[in-house]
Design a protein that fits this description.
The structure holds 2 protein chains of 2 kinds. By secondary structure, chain A is of the alpha+beta class. Chain A contains 11 helices and 10 strands. In chain A, α6 packs parallel to α8, α7 runs antiparallel to α8 and α8 runs antiparallel to α9. Chain A is globular and about 75 Å long. Chain B is α+β, with helices and mostly antiparallel strands. In chain B, 45% of the residues lie in helices and 14% in strands. In chain B, β2 and β3 form a beta hairpin. The two termini of chain B are 12 Å apart. The chains are: A alpha+beta, B alpha+beta.
Chain lengths: 333, 384
């Protein structure tokens, strides 16, 4: 099932997302047609199957990362999951999800939501905003909020949303801000994995094609070793992301997701560095497609907690488990 | 481009009880004084302890009962192995025989060889080492010059092997020897022998390492006679035999756990309320360890399924070795002020840290250097 979901998503994105679409999206054109195709294929409902939902959603996210899909796929998936667990109907169309930043403060008092949410992906393009405030899940109409447009390093919308007024629907939240951050970190890990797979592929192909000193640069040991290191980082990320996917709803979600975000985030920075070094000046141009992936890697590693944030949290937890408890914990998880 | 594959592996439920059994055994034996985790690097040899492990059925676990094995799964062996390593138990003496020599004999040995060696290995009675490198042959192993000449009833071997770990406590060395011409290619003409280290003409001299330990040896083979039944596998197949089980040798927990006890000691140093600097580093290491173990277990599952994930194993070894080497480098910077690291210090952390720093260079050399591993991965990616 999950393999089929991945293949469907991968094929759809591969056929639809090209440099023109990415450049247009970055210039501010929301790719409506692509969204319609995604919605028709049911990819944003990937969480629906109680048995394979998490794995299916993970497959969609990895495919989205592979093709740098400029749509709120992760946000819509997670928002729909949140709404479903809260017993609320999911509005049609792309959804924005907040808070993405744990420092956001918002209140929900007597039917009115008040607060500001920062770094909201596609806040201005969403059909509805799905928010957490005061232990409630809120569905808000973007038209009735103030939206200050912003951009990530990748040129994707990251907006500031200020809300002060009634909401469309609300229900007690099945999770808290930390829980939402955990799921966001998981989603970004899978997207980073997908983007790194593409970056590795692009760099290896280039190294085999580009001739200097009379032979492909991929014959140079120094180039080979950088690509080998990149492959190792991608391999470690793929396993860390899979372990997190297997445990997302389990008792060891914190360990597995923290490890995935730390490992994939670290790998993202390295993969981008190696790829740009191997590809030289052409990889640094706007003309080449590499930056659509590396700029996303640089964005995603910072979102829903950096490696340092998760490492400190994990390290504190490890301290509470203690030196003698560490290994039993790791082998139990 | 060849994609690296790490299939999901879940440890079967029966391994949980086995894990507890190993932990209980180690605790009881430690209380009884049979062993203690010394303030040294990784693990150390203790023949008596190896016999205890053999008696428990934890050597040759996956081999057929007919040869003294226990017909358990590779994943059960994995669990026993990682528990022994993490505890710092002295498993060095039987390590190579269990991981490498026994499986080689099982795979390509004659029936008589299997009967002769495997049951004694499984009981922890005989130990093996590996004679590969020579003074002029390290990573370029094919260039070895130790020669075997066919004579009536056997072979005469002459040459010199170096960096032979634990030859001084072993009974046999699986030794790579040139027995024929390097044709049709330079990988041809090599053969492996079960060298009896007590045979006339074998002399073993210690080569102390920079940490002051005697682990390495030089083995001089002066016209040593080995009977025909000590040739292992087919003459000329040596290279194929040496390289065919690399996934087993490069993906196990020993490739990322050799400084685990220093990580645990560092966690201990941080106490219950570590500062951010300490927490960030221990947290990061645990994330790496978690991913590495996941990769290694994945390979164990693929090996169990009869696959040969050699590229994936090279990844685990290279990443695992870097992880092992990073721990002492970070520990020295973030640990609260402790006694300066000195081998044998009374302070546990200082002693383990000292050994980790001194032994670190060996991690990325033994069993395939970093450079060789990265070359293998690059070739797997379709470069070269």
């Amino acid at each position: 099932m999950t393999d089929l979901v991945f293949e469907t998503a991968d094929r759809l994105f591969r056929d639809a997302v090209d440099k023109d679409l990415l450049d247009a999206a970055e210039a501010g054109t929301f790719p409506r047609e692509l969204w319609r195709a995604v919605a028709e294929t049911g990819l944003v409902e990937a969480f629906a199957d109680p048995e394979t939902g998490i794995a299916d959603a993970g497959a969609v996210l990895r495919a989205a990362g592979r093709h740098a899909v400029p749509l709120p796929i992760a946000e819509t998936l997670l928002a729909r999951r949140l709404l479903q667990r809260a017993g609320l109907d999911a509005p049609e169309g792309p959804l924005a999800l907040a808070p993405a930043d744990p420092r956001d403060r918002a209140a929900f008092v007597e039917g009115r939501a008040m607060g500001t949410y920062y770094g909201v992906a596609w806040g201005g393009d969403a059909a509805a905003l799905v928010l957490l405030a005061d232990g409630e899940v809120l569905v808000a109409d973007p038209v009735r909020t103030r939206i200050e447009p912003g951009r990530s390093l990748a040129g994707e919308p990251r907006d500031t949303i200020t809300i002060d007024g009634p909401v469309l629907a609300h229900a007690p939240a099945p999770t808290d801000v930390a829980g939402l951050r955990l799921e966001g970190a998981w989603a970004r890990s899978l997207m980073m994995l997908g983007a790194m797979e593409t970056v590795l592929d692009v760099a290896v192909t280039y190294a085999n094609d580009r001739v200097q000193f009379g032979r492909p640069i991929g014959k140079q040991q120094s180039i080979q070793h950088q690509l080998a290191l990149m492959a190792e980082e991608v391999a470690a990320s793929s396993v860390a992301a899979r372990l997190a996917t297997e445990r997302l709803d389990g008792p060891e979600a914190f360990l597995a997701v923290a490890a995935a975000k730390i490992r994939c985030g670290e790998a993202a920075g390295k993969a981008a560095e190696y790829a740009h070094q191997v590809m030289g000046a052409i990889g640094f141009t706007h003309e080449h497609t590499l930056h659509h992936f590396t700029r996303r890697l640089w964005t995603w590693r910072d979102e829903y907690g950096r490696e340092s944030d998760w490492s400190i949290e994990l390290g504190r937890y490890v301290a509470s488990v203690g030196a003698d408890g560490l290994w039993p914990w790791l082998t139990r998880a | 481009m060849t994609a690296l594959r790490f299939d999901p592996t879940n440890l079967p439920p029966e391994t949980a009880a086995l894990r507890q059994e190993v932990r209980r055994f180690l605790a009881e034996e430690r209380a009884r004084g049979s062993w203690s985790p010394r303030g040294d690097f990784g693990t150390h040899p203790d023949p008596a302890f190896s016999r205890l492990i053999g008696a428990r059925g934890w050597i040759g676990m996956t081999w057929p009962r007919a040869y003294g094995g226990h017909e358990r799964s590779g994943l059960e062996r994995y669990v026993v192995t990682e528990e022994l390593l993490v505890s710092g138990a002295p498993v060095t003496a039987h390590w190579i025989a269990d991981r490498q020599s026994g499986p080689l004999i099982l795979r390509v040995g004659t029936e008589a060889q299997k009967q002769r060696f495997l049951p004694r290995i499984a009981r922890g009675e005989i130990f093996f080492c590996i004679g590969m490198s020579e003074p002029d042959s390290g990573s370029d192993l094919v260039s070895i010059r130790t020669r075997g000449t066919k004579v009536d009833g056997g072979w005469r071997i002459t040459g010199r092997k170096v960096w032979t770990s634990n030859a001084h406590i072993s009974d046999y060395a699986i030794t790579l020897v040139r027995t024929g011409p390097p044709e049709p290619d330079r990988h041809s003409g090599l053969s492996q022998f079960i060298l009896d280290l007590k045979a006339p003409g074998v002399s073993i001299r210690p080569i102390r390492n920079l940490a002051g330990h005697h682990d390495f040896n030089e083995m001089v083979l002066d016209d040593v006679f080995l009977a025909d039944d000590l040739l292992i596998g087919q003459p000329g197949d040596g290279w194929k035999q040496v390289t065919s089980e690399l996934a087993f040798e490069r993906s196990g927990p020993e490739r990322f756990l050799s400084t685990y006890r220093l990580l645990a000691a560092l966690v201990e140093q941080g106490g219950y309320d570590p500062d951010d600097r300490m927490a960030e580093q221990t947290g990061r290491f645990v994330a790496h360890l978690w991913a590495l173990r996941g990769m290694s277990l994945s390979i164990a599952g693929m090996l169990q399924a009869g696959e040969a994930p050699n590229l994936e194993a090279a990844c685990v070894k290279d990443l695992g070795n870097s992880f092992e080497r990073a721990i002492p480098e970070v520990a020295r910077l973030v640990a609260p002020t402790v006694p300066l690291p000195v081998p044998g210090a009374n302070d546990d952390f200082a002693a383990i840290q000292a050994e980790a720093v001194l032994n670190a260079p060996s991690i990325t050399l033994r069993g395939g250097t970093r450079e060789i591993l990265r070359g293998i991965i690059a070739r797997g990616l379709g470069l070269r």
